[in-house]
Amino acid sequence: MTAAARPAPPPVARGRLPLIGHGLHMWRRPLEFLDTLTAYDPIVAVHLGPKPTYVLTSPDLVHRVMVSDAADYAKGRSFDKLRDYLGNGLATSEGSFHLRQRRLMQPAFHHTHIARYARTMAETATARAASWRLGQAIDVTREMYDLSLAVLTSTLFSTTLDERLAAEIRRTVPLVLRGMYTRVLDPTNLWQRLPTPGNRRLADAHRRLRNVIDHLIDARRGSPPDGEPDLLTLLLRAEDASTADTMTSQQVYDEVVTLLVAGTETVAGGLAWLFHELGLHPDADRELYEEVRQQSGAPFDLDRLGRLPYTRRTVDEALRVRNPGGITIRRAVTDVELGGHHFERGTEFIFSALVLHRNPRCFTDPTRFDPDRWLPDRPAAPRGAFIPFGAGSHQCIGESFARAEMTATVVAVVDQWRLEPVPGKRVRGVMTSTNHPRDLVMTPRPRTTAARP
């Protein structure tokens, strides 16, 4: 092919600045910036470093990179930075080691265990919602974060943490998340080397979080729980089928810190956005309550999920329009062809569920919250257009856990309260390694006329 016949390179997203490219947009207003990328099809270049990175806005191309041609891609440079904090857990590992770890961890997320976890989720969410009071203004994002942490620790460690350890996790995980995101976006890789107050806080938070998790692992090795095993016990017992090897303490740590980060922040962000949308859409809230009310008093188990179709559609729609995930980066390990363009080995590609889920070529009126778009008689989303938990061999291992937790929480809260927006409060999205709402203050109103004490 002659130079004149070569296709034009992919367009560059608007707003590129000298030296820092699009990094400032991703730092200051990441959600708004990602929304602008839906105007491009199927690839758009963004600059987050010395070389362009290409955002895939087509579900077909994302499917190729994540599933059908996955062997041609590895995790991008951002994951190298994350390994300083998440180790070599499922979120950061790849290749044969990733497959081995996934096989070792998969039994812990078997449906029989999820069914047992679901009861704990429901009890924890019901107790949390019952602690709210009529007229109390609550920070919904913080409430969902604390609830998700309580759910995860009660299933991971089979008991609630004592307040000292719980407080350490509440303090340190957000600091580590913010620090990780800052480093991922730094195109120079210089900021992390400076003795700034933020870097010192990050190092201290990482050290303290490490101490807490090591303490919990050592305690579980020394004293396994009575009765049904918790998640941590299952990880410690997991054996490689071919070698009978178990995970080292370092491997268990890497997986536990990954579960703490992914299992707390992501679910909390998804739930906070869901209640924000219900506050803005009282008709959807009423329909959801009517479905929950008809099942009121029934024990929460996995069978009940099938009897709550509107609840499931509501969860799906919240995961679509306000997906709590961040961005995923893949690096080509060989020369590749995508979207009619040739890319050399080493080129990096980004995809974001937010970009796909809010793409007008995939969803009608994509920014509108509409649980009924998931009715069986509605047109199905194109393949790969709805991937709230990723795709391929790196799809989130905890998807069924997260869905059960979100459903249990929605049922527990909606059965007791309607969360109403506080007038005058402006809610905006914030991107760290996850997408969550800031300043989401809402007021609980009881579903019955009887006021709570």
TrEMBL record:
Superkingdom of source: Bacteria
Cofactors that this protein relies on: heme
Molecular function, one GO term: iron ion binding
UniProt keyword annotation of Zinc present: no
A Pfam match: p450
Keyword terms: Heme, Iron, Metal-binding, Monooxygenase, Oxidoreductase
Region (Disordered): 428-453
Binding site for heme: C396
Family: Belongs to the cytochrome P450 family.
Name the UniProt record assigns to this protein: Cytochrome P450
